[in-house]
Write a structure and sequence with these properties.
Chain lengths: 472, 506
């Protein structure tokens, strides 16, 4: 590895450097604001470096056998860093209202982002595992960060056990694949003729990926953990962690394409269809906003899988755009939950949102915009994303998947509309006081809503950027 | 057209909606005035379109008033392209005409959350205008869907007791059709040769789509539009939405939103997939006639005036569909005129029902009787509008229904005979209702002191009455401008199908 190679890893290096800086600063003196500022500066610098790389170069650079820096990894990297930046701001706003030792939280967040970056750039099962573990372990601590809250602890332990189990599955799968191919880089994966052992290895790998992406039938942990975790952590889990995994999945499937492995294709198709239906159906009767969004995210990852199944350039581009739109939207939705959460409680119950339109019009408008975006209504990012997906499906004549996607989206409308309606209806009993909207919270939400509408109204620049991502 | 008048018309209500955001919500009177001013300005801006639009039969180019289109999403060949022809021109004018009247009608009716209401209303107007003017399928779809949200809010927040049920039903019904239409749009898009993939409507008109593809795409489009029209049996959302919606919401729903469906057939479903349209013509003509008779019969049984008017819409829109599927000039110009007529007459009926409701907070026929003695001016206007709605000669309704029946007679003789009974039934339900509400003795004590129309109510009713007679007496003001476009429309549908048509006729 040369210094020139290191240049391509600059975003990762900056994040890692920030980790060290934050750690030493905490050792000297605990100051919440300073630590938050440092982490944010780190994320911002890394994001700028990432965007500069994106603007400067088109090629693909293999940096050691482990990592690859190309357009796709840079786009997903930017997405992860953007999510990190937003979540840091939301977390500062959120933790300020709580009595905790707050500083280490940022350390964990930076580590998780570094893990996600490695995962997004992984070209080798070693780095894949490394990134995944770094991400999972940091997330586990972040989920349980509010130690005094039993549900947060419960969620943390659940995540730890399940993530550990899924890692074990994955390692075993990788071992089986290695036994068959003798190599650990992704490109070797599809070079072999399918033998039963290879299939078994792939199946175990799919299990682990399915767990991370919360795809049915590996989704059971999602609602509990989304609900138990602090809102900003949920936001990070729902966005950056998923984006990193989708990036890795795109890369694993890249060399050959999924249709080379029909059995794998059908397994993933089944997962996608079940996720779309199950996620949307189970969300229908939720009275907890966080659980509702958790089920919604299950369905959305099912949609993303449709793009992966379609394959080809169109498929991977559609998946990439979908993840961008989904990240911005989910950040906005969980951002609302986060700024609405006062003191010890989380703004989780749907009832908290009753009549929000007439009490906090701006926050309610942001929530409405993000829900409409999740529902795929025009003028929002979600519409363009869904349009792209359906277009990719239609182009490839995947009628069954397209029809399921359409049917599932219509089911989804019911619960999105229900939340919007709750925010619109009058609150009969005198409602509990809402926390004041801080300047940071307001700015973040405003920025996210602008991004969400911009992606919906004028997606051309982003599409041009994605247009140069190489296909599956 | 180099000057972007059409864009200006589309976006000026949206601009006013944004302006309202910056007014404090306590200043209700100011908010209402700004909204009224904004919608009036839009109307004034849209009037020149009538004179600017000069179609000639010689050149196809003159049939359209178009703006130069702009790139929007280049990667997909999506453009921002807007324009009007002789069909959309009148629907645009109808929209800009009805909106200020609706703002006036909501002046006292909407008492709380005035700001949000007016913003929704203006955004709704912008989306409706965009839908009528869009000449790019993607743009059309965006406007088409964007319309849903403000309408959902108007029904869901300011509606009656079962407003949530009605609003969600409205949203879901429309959405089911729309997403299937989206899939059909994409299927057609990808059937284009790779180099020239675009959502440009005129490109789509020019290309020949394989017949078997046409069938599926036509059905998907037709479902989306048939739900919106609404054609029997997809009409069940309509009475709910109407009964629960506030007066102005009902006016816009009946006056403009339902026309989206019929307009969709005229602009997209039929000319894009002519062979499929002809193939399914008996089905759609049949459904239209069922709708006419069914709507009329159900109206006859209603106890609630507003519900009666809502079901009568199903019947009236059946005439429009029948006229379109006659595939001749009389039928289609009758249909397009009837779209405008229905917007005026039914819109006015909803406004009048709103006037009653504001005074008595009931809409039950049984709660009234002998109103003609108490509110003579109101009763007179109600009579005029009711008669225009059932197509009395001299009013707009007569011209539209007559042309539709004339056109349909040539093509669907037995069906037209059945449809004509709808006219008789319409007279029955409407006149019977009028008789029970307005004539006889004043049976209810509360009705004895009802005030007659006030100035504001005159202001929003009179323009419609004037137009009702104007169209009835000088229909050529309207027919003249739409004729060439419809002629062209028929040539779009016919060539592919002329043989088929005549084969059937002989």
């Amino acid at each position: 590895m040369t210094g020139y190679d290191l240049l391509f890893l600059l975003p990762l290096v900056i994040v890692a450097g920030t980790v060290l800086l934050v750690m030493s600063s905490i050792a000297l003196r605990r100051r919440h604001l300073l630590v938050a500022l440092m982490s944010d500066a780190g994320f911002l610098a890394a994001l700028i470096a990432n965007l500069a790389l994106l603007a400067a170069d088109d090629g693909s650079h293999q940096v050691t056998a482990l990592l690859i820096v190309d357009r796709s990894s840079l786009i997903f990297g930017a997405l992860i860093l953007f999510a990190g930046l937003i979540v840091t701001l939301l977390s500062y706003d959120y933790l300020k209202r709580r009595d905790e030792r707050r500083e280490e939280y940022y350390l964990l967040l930076l580590l998780a982002a570094a893990g996600a970056l490695v995962l997004a750039g992984a070209a080798h099962f070693a780095s894949f595992f490394l990134g995944l573990e770094l991400l999972s372990v940091s997330l586990f601590a972040m989920i349980a960060y509010l130690r005094t809250r039993p549900d947060a602890l419960e969620a943390g332990v659940k995540y730890l056990v399940l993530a550990g189990a899924s890692s074990a599955f994955m390692l075993f799968g990788v071992a089986l694949i290695y036994a068959q191919t003798g190599r650990l880089d992704f490109s070797a994966l599809f070079m072999m003729r399918a033998s039963p052992w290879l299939i078994a290895g792939l199946a175990l790998l799919v299990t682990a990926v399915g767990f991370k992406l919360a795809l049915a039938p590996f989704h059971w942990w999602t609602p509990d953990i989304y609900q138990g975790a602090p809102a900003p952590v949920t936001a990070f889990m729902a966005t950056a962690s998923k984006a990193a995994m989708v990036a890795a999945l795109l890369r694993i499937a890249a060399p050959a394409g999924l249709d080379q492995q029909p059995r794998l294709w059908y397994a993933l198709a089944a997962m996608s269809v079940i996720s779309m239906f199950l996620g949307n159906l189970l969300a229908l009767r939720q009275n907890s906003v966080k659980r509702l969004l958790a089920y919604s995210s299950i369905a959305h990852l099912g949609y993303v899988l449709v793009a992966l199944l379609v394959g080809g350039t169109a498929g991977s581009q559609a998946a990439t755009f979908y993840l961008i739109a989904y990240t911005v939207t989910m950040l906005a939705a969980f951002g609302v939950v986060s700024v609405m959460s006062a003191g010890e409680t989380e703004a989780d119950a749907l009832e908290t949102y009753r009549g929000l339109f007439w009490r906090r019009p701006f926050v309610a408008a942001v929530m409405t915009a993000s829900l409409l975006s999740l529902a795929g209504i025009p003028l929002t990012a979600g519409f363009v994303a869904k349009f792209y997906l359906v277009a990719a499906g239609v182009r490839d004549a995947q009628w069954a998947l397209v029809l399921v996607l359409i049917a599932a989206s219509v089911i989804g409308l019911f619960y999105y509309l229900r939340v919007i309606w709750t925010m619109l209806s009058a609150s009969d009993p005198a409602p509990a006081a809402l926390p004041a909207l801080s300047l940071i919270g307001g700015t973040v939400l405003a920025a996210l809503v602008v991004a969400l509408l911009w992606l919906g109204l004028y997606p051309a620049p982003i599409l041009r950027l994605i247009g140069r991502v190489s296909g599956l | 057209m180099s000057f972007r008048l059409i864009s200006l018309i589309i976006f000026s209500p949206a601009a006013f909606a944004v302006a309202l955001l910056f007014v404090r919500r306590e200043k209700e009177e100011l908010l209402r005035r700004i909204a009224l001013g904004g919608s009036l300005l839009t109307f004034v801006l849209s009037l020149p379109l009538y004179w600017l639009y000069r179609p000639t039969l010689e050149s196809v180019e003159s049939l359209w008033l178009r703006e130069t289109s702009l790139h929007w999403i280049e990667a997909w060949g999506v453009r921002y392209a807007v324009g009007v022809d002789g069909i959309s021109l009148f629907l645009v004018l109808l929209t800009t005409f009805l909106t200020p009247l609706c703002v006036l009608a909501s002046w006292r009716y909407i008492k709380d959350r005035v700001k949000a209401y007016l913003i929704s209303f203006l955004l709704l107007e912008a989306a409706m205008l965009g839908t009528f003017c869009a000449l790019d399928l993607f743009l059309f779809y965006v406007f088409w869907e964007a319309m849903l949200v403000p309408m959902y809010l108007i029904i869901g927040v300011w509606g009656g007791p079962r407003r949530i049920y009605a609003a969600v039903k409205f949203f879901i019904y429309t959405m089911v059709g729309s997403v299937l239409m989206l899939a059909a749009i994409l299927v057609t898009y990808f059937s284009l040769p790779e180099s020239s993939r675009t959502f440009d409507l005129f490109q789509w008109y020019r290309m020949a789509i394989a017949p078997e593809l046409q069938v599926w795409c036509f059905l998907a489009f037709a479902l989306a539009f048939a739900i919106k029209v609404p054609m029997w049996p997809f009409h069940t959302w309509l009475p709910d939405a109407h009964v629960e919606a506030p007066t102005a919401g009902s006016v816009i729903l009946a006056g403009v939103l339902l026309k989206m469906g019929t307009y969709g057939f005229v602009r997209f479903a039929m000319p894009l997939f002519p062979e499929a349209a002809l193939k399914f013509a008996p089905l759609f003509a049949g459904l239209a006639v069922i709708g006419i008779v069914y709507g009329a019969l159900v109206s006859l049984a209603q106890k609630d005036v507003k519900k009666l008017v809502a079901y009568s819409s199903v019947s009236h829109l059946g005439f429009v569909m029948l006229g379109l599927f006659a595939f001749n000039l009389q039928g289609s110009s009758g249909a397009v005129l009837q779209m405008v007529n229905h917007g005026l007459s039914t819109g006015a009926l909803f406004l009048l029902v709103g006037v009653l409701y504001e005074r008595r907070h009931t809409r039950m026929i049984a709660d009234f009787g002998g109103l003609a003695r108490v509110m003579p001016a109101f009763s007179a206007i109600f009579m005029i509008v009711a008669l225009s709605s059932i197509g009395l000669p001299g009013t707009n309704g007569f011209i539209g229904e007559f042309l539709v029946l004339l056109g349909a007679f040539e093509r669907w003789l037995p069906l037209t005979v059945v449809a004509a009974t709808g006219v008789i039934l319409a007279a029955c339900y409407m006149l019977w209702m009028v008789q029970r509400v307005f004539f006889g003795a004043v049976t209810h004590e509360e009705n004895k002191a009802l005030p007659d129309l006030n100035l504001r109510e005159w202001a929003y009713l009179l323009p419609i009455v004037v137009l009702i007679f104007w169209i009835g007496i000088f229909p050529n003001t309207f027919l003249g401008k739409m004729g060439p476009s419809l002629d062209h429309w028929l040539t779009q549908i016919k060539p592919a199908a002329v043989a088929l048509l005549h084969g059937v006729a002989r």
